[in-house]
Amino acid sequence: MGSTLLVAFALMLVIEGILPFIAPARWRETFLQLARLADGQIRFIGLTSMLIGVLLLFVVI
Description:
It is built from three helices and no strands.
């Protein structure tokens, strides 16, 4: 289980790093737009991401 968790974390870092590496200016713009969102909007995005992740886990496992 520990090695699987490390692999998942490593893949997350790779995926998270793609956009800043390929298009740093666009990533900065997107990040600044996200920083302007209200707390409720950010929470909704976080909740949606978590639910999609849980659904994907159920499909894959």
